[in-house]
């Protein structure tokens, strides 16, 4: 059914109410999402389709950087998504790599959901779990769609072993992936061993190997997951990819432009990926064009770009704010349905225009 436009006068006459404001903790987010990985992957795929159809607003992310703390940043991702989700909002996510040395996670985040009718925020949510979940769901979706026609890889390698790597493994396992071999590499040997321990506790039947260097990991993996905090390319040798693996380039800045030039390149959003010093952005600057971009994941899902099997496939997801909103709204709706929302009745104190 076609939606009819409402005149400004009629819209002004319609009564509006301010939605109740809820605070949603990380514990609640985990309780909703745990065990529902397949549903989250389906939601992320549908959100990509809605975004590709133009029923979204996803402006460039804003990076807050600090001259006195050059490795740290806080990023604002405003967005609006239509479809069946219909919500506006913003993610405010920080990345402070030095946290790791103190034993606390690198990233933290909050997600704000705004009502589309009044503009009032109606939820403030712990956002790092939502961010990790949508990132892992995006990676799992890409691994599925990009391996169709070439066979699912049986050997996976994780380059970087933090929270995102753990979530990606969880989502792959929950969406019926299984492996004969799992390779692990991290600049921190302690982190690599810790990730190996997690994998063994997860009940994997795969042989888990901690590699001494990146070349060994990449050459022995048919699916390579980059989940690092690298700020610039550090993998340069194209021959390491001669066996044409599927690469989930989640951290975006690990691969030298030459590697992308020799690969099939699938992005989540072209305009977003070709900025902020990503490997794809560096390649655009090097070549002066975007001819190396083969399409988006939505193009693959729609059958417009068939995956190739004669060269490496690199999926580079910038991470869209609309994905956070879709997953966040899913969490909110589930908590509302079960009566578990924690509402702050007096959050807004001025609700009468003239007092």
UniProtKB/TrEMBL annotation:
Listed InterPro entries: NAD(P)-bd_dom_sf, ODC_Mu_crystall, ODC_N, SbnB
GO MF terms held by the record: oxidoreductase activity, acting on the CH-NH2 group of donors, NAD or NADP as acceptor
GO biological process, one term: siderophore biosynthetic process
Pfam families registered for this protein in UniProt: OCD_Mu_crystall
One GO CC term on file: cytoplasm
SUPFAM superfamilies for the chain: NAD(P)-binding Rossmann-fold domains
The protein's name in its UniProt record: Putative ornithine cyclodeaminase
Taxonomy of the source species: Bacteria, Bacillati, Actinomycetota, Actinomycetes, Micrococcales
Gene: ocd
């Amino acid at each position: 059914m076609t939606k009819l436009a409402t005149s400004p006068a009629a819209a002004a006459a319609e009564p509006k109410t301010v939605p109740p404001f809820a605070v949603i903790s990380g514990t609640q987010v985990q309780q909703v999402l745990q065990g529902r990985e397949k549903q989250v992957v389906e939601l992320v795929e549908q959100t990509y389709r809605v975004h590709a159809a133009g029923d979204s607003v996803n402006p460039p992310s804003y990076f807050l950087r600090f001259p006195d703390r050059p490795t740290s940043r806080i990023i604002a991702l405003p967005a609006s998504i239509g479809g069946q989700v219909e919500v506006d909002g913003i993610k405010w996510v920080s990345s402070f790599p030095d946290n790791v040395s103190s034993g606390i996670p690198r990233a933290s985040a909050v997600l704000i959901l705004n009502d589309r009718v009044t503009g009032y925020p109606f939820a403030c949510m712990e956002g790092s779990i939502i961010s990790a979940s949508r990132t892992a769901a995006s990676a799992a979706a890409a691994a599925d769609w990009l391996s169709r026609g070439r066979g699912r890889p049986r050997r996976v390698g994780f380059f970087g072993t933090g929270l995102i790597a753990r979530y990606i493994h969880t989502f792959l396992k929950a969406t019926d992936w299984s492996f004969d071999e799992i390779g692990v590499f991290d600049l921190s040997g302690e982190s690599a061993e810790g990730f190996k321990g997690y994998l063994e506790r997860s009940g994997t039947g795969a042989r888990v190997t901690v590699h001494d260097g990146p070349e060994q990991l990449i050459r022995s993996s048919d699916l390579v997951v980059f989940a690092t905090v690298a700020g610039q390319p550090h993998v340069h040798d194209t021959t390491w990819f001669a066996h044409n693996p599927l690469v989930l380039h989640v951290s975006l800045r690990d691969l030298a432009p030459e590697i992308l030039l020799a690969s099939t390149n699938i992005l989540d959003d072209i305009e977003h990926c070709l900025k902020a010093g990503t490997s794809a952005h560096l390649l655009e600057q090097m070549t002066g064009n975007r001819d190396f971009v083969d399409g988006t994941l939505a193009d693959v899902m729609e059958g417009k770009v068939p995956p190739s099997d004669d060269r490496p496939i690199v999926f580079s997801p910038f991470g869209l704010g609309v994905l956070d909103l879709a997953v966040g709204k899913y969490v909110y709706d589930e908590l509302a349905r079960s009566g578990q929302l924690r509402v702050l009745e007096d959050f807004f104190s001025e609700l009468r225009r003239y007092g």
